[in-house]
Amino acid sequence: MYHIKPIISSNVHIELPTSMYQIKPISTDHLNDIHSNNLNVAGSNLADVSEKPNRDIVQQINKILKSKSGDMEELEARQEIILKQLKELKERLMSMHKELNVCSKPAQSRVQQSSQTKTAQKPIDASNLRDIVINANPSNVPFSLVILKKLWTDRLSINIQFYTHSSVSSLSQSAVNFQHICTAHQSTSATALNVSLIWKNVDSIEMINGSTLPIIGESNILRYLARIGPNEFNYETNGSNCNEIDSQLDLSEMLLAAETARDRQTIFKNLNATLGKNEYFGGSEPRINDLSLASAVLQSTAEKELPPTLLKWSRKVMG
Question: What is the dihedral of CA 257, 262, 264, 265, to 10 degrees?
Fold first, then answer.
């Protein structure tokens, strides 16, 4: 790739062997002695031939090491200047560190950071609040809606009207209790979002909003509501860890799809390690990932399988 001037010049003649291994002949003792003598002579000749070039190379190396060229001296001078500048920069940074009284404590965990970060509330854009229709199976009640209704009570009124499709003969007790709680709770905000919830025999909860395609899954509906609702709940814009929250929202869907207790335990182990000693997954206050996960726990009737930490968290979220 590059041609450079050789540092050491040497014309060393090397005699390459004509065979890979030298072995003694095994036919006669006479040939054996002759071969041994030839090897000894050849070895002494090679030693004499190679000794002189090696001495020349060593002398050249010693000469280079003892003499300093102009390029070498210039390089050393530049290195000294760089080291001096680095030292001055370090002293300036230490001085600024003391003047600004910067804290040297390690960074807090993501959950703790989100709990201490307060997002300034902004007015809700009413143009985004279109009436929506939700089709839900009475055997899989979307409990997150009633929690969201309570959390947004002074920011956004979620007015839910209930209907029953002809595919449903009767409502489950959980669906009946859900209706009573939603009807009994009155929001104080003048800004409202109208929701028509239809109990229907569907495989998964779905939301229909105007001309858009249906939104499938409770976690995805919560994502949509977080975008059009109070800005402090929009995890995509308030400085939250989007990837972590999205992962937990996906885990809630996996929990609903889990068929065995072993599958659920794998998810609970993951969530328990993430929650740690924090109050909620969202920090000091519940967020949509808490709502989605708590709703999935109730729908999967897996509360008895929860570790003590997650059991306490689930009951706190549901109120």
Answer: -170
